[in-house]
Amino acid sequence: VEDALEHERTQARAQVLRELAWLIPALAAALGTFAILVWFPPIGQAWRQAAEWSVGPGSQPLAGLAYSAFGLMVGAAAGWLLRIVFTLIFGREALGSGDIYILAAAGAAGGWDIVLLGLLLAVGIALAAYAISLLLKRTLTIPFGPWLALGFVAALWQNQRAALHAQEYYEAIRYAWTHQASVCWLGAGLMLIGSAAAIAAARLVRRVLESRA
Asked: Which residues 6+ apart lie within 8 Å of 50 measured at CB?
């Protein structure tokens, strides 16, 4: 059994490394485009003027297309990041490619803020459901797609409130960074340590469960 599990981990990690190699050209193109828009002001200004083109009151098709494309890229990037990082850490497929397509589609339709908030809420809802299943001593195996759908619905419902809180947090962090940068560095360090501890604990729990299986 241990040999089979180790083979599964090796195969899963090799697969996401191949996927990462496929994604490098797209990532390089995106970063290159961003660098051109930032480092060459005339090009960036021309793009902004083109985006402001309107075919009628409140209708800016190029701006809408750019916003939709950005949301698609953010959703896909978030999905690929989770898939690659957690597959490398745990040695098991962390997120299916279908879930990444769902994230990309949600980002294109709802925007980058909806897809990120929806993903966060989906993870919380799925973890809550899993905890309840453990308390009830029942096995709950549901693909992540339905949880994503619930997360996006909740994000559409709570988007304005979340945006207000995000703006408040941003202003607080900006103020702290301006006046007490050391506190920000300390907070970032504690977050990294906490994340590493959580990942280590999750890996330990997984190994214990596998040893009992």
From this structure: 62
Structure confidence by residue, pLDDT tens digits, 2-35: 666 666 777 888 888 888 888 888 889 888 888 8
* Strand, helix or coil for residue 159: helix
Question: Smallest Cα–Cα separation from 159: which of 127, 123, 121, 102?
Answer: 121
- 143 in Cβ contact with 109 (< 8 Å): no
Does residue 121 register a pLDDT over 60?
A: yes
- Whether the CB-CB separation of 104 and 81 falls below 8 Å is answered with no
Distance separating alpha carbons of residues 59 and 202, to the nearest angstrom? 48
- What lies within 8 Å, CB to CB, of 67 at 6+ separation is 111
d(CA 49, CA 112) in angstroms, rounded, equals 22
- Backbone dihedral angles phi then psi of residue 44, each to the nearest 5 degrees: -65, -40
